[in-house]
Amino acid sequence: MQKSNNKGQTSYVGMWVTQNGYIRHELQPNGRYDEARGNKQSAYQGRYKLNGDHIDYVDDTGFTADGDFRNGVLYHAGMILYREE
Question: Cross-referenced InterPro entries, in alphabetical order (predicted)?
Answer without folding.
Answer: Atu4866-like_sf (IPR038646), Uncharacterised_Atu4866 (IPR020955)
